[in-house]
Specification:
267 residues, mainly alpha, 84% helix, transmembrane helix
């Protein structure tokens, strides 16, 4: 489908996406800081650790496993279930390892259990900024280019570069699909992510500071992997109903958070 104009309602939804992606993490961090008097630096460390481990370090094996042509990447690409599980497992390993390193070394003197939640707020908050705010800003830039006619020139410049051309051609349809409905689903997905990130932060925090709780670290990896598998199921079209996927994830996230909070954090 050829989109030559991005409507006002879509642009409004994108602007709201940027605002929500920025405001929600800041509001949660501010409320937690005021309520608990916890150091804001813990939240900052959570955010920086996410960037280092999830954005930078995790991308290194992804290049070999998904982008560079080799027998392993070909096998993954041709097996949907493997394609679902591998990225989820990578996210689980790298993000939980980031938490472990942060609690073990950067936050080793902060043994107040509220530190776990502070870290989780920073970790999940910056992820929300990347997924909603930064993505929304990119969409706004491309929407302006599409409406002004500059995007057509960008397609012409791609020329015979089929990879770049195909990538660019998908952008207008992607932007036009954004609505208040999809924004609502994204917000539910982010709430689920915040709950799981805080729960995993609690598990890893306790695994670091209590010798008899070491098993909580691999449990956090498995829980993280399990939750991320749902996104892979939708991306590979193994499940096509996004509402059902996010609904299940939301329910499971509440169960995970409630269980971890009551059985680990409160004890």
């Amino acid at each position: 489908m050829n989109y030559e104009y991005i409507g006002t309602s879509t642009i409004t939804a994108i602007i709201l996406m940027v605002i929500i992606g920025t405001a929600v993490p800041l509001i949660i961090a501010a409320i937690w800081k005021i309520k608990t008097k916890e150091p804001i630096s813990t939240i900052f460390i959570g955010a920086v650790t996410f960037i280092l481990f999830a954005i930078i370090l995790e991308s290194i094996p992804k290049v070999f496993l998904f982008q560079v042509k080799n027998p392993i990447s070909n096998y993954i690409a041709n097996n949907k279930w493997v394609f679902v599980i591998v990225p989820a497992l990578l996210a689980g390993i790298f993000e939980e390892s980031g938490r472990f390193v942060a609690f073990k070394f950067l936050l080793k003197k902060r043994k107040n259990k509220k530190t776990a939640i502070s870290y989780g707020i920073g970790h999940s908050g910056i992820e929300m900024v990347f997924i909603l705010t930064f993505a929304g800003i990119q969409c706004l830039v491309f929407a302006q280019m599409i409406n002004s006619g500059q995007f057509a020139k960008l397609l012409e410049q791609a020329g015979n570069n089929q990879v770049q051309l195909k990538s660019l051609q998908a952008i207008p349809q992607l932007i036009a699909s954004i609505s208040f409905g999809t924004l609502g689903i994204s917000l539910i997905e982010r709430i689920s992510a915040i709950l799981v990130h805080i729960a995993c932060s609690i598990l890893v925090f306790y695994s670091v500071h209590f010798k008899n709780k070491k098993i909580l670290f691999p449990i956090a990896i498995l829980l993280h992997t399990f939750i991320d598998i749902f996104a892979g199921l939708y991306q590979t079209k193994l499940v096509t109903n996004l509402v059902i996927i996010e609904g299940w994830v939301f329910v499971i996230s509440i169960i995970i958070f409630s269980f971890v909070y009551k059985k680990v954090y409160e004890k």
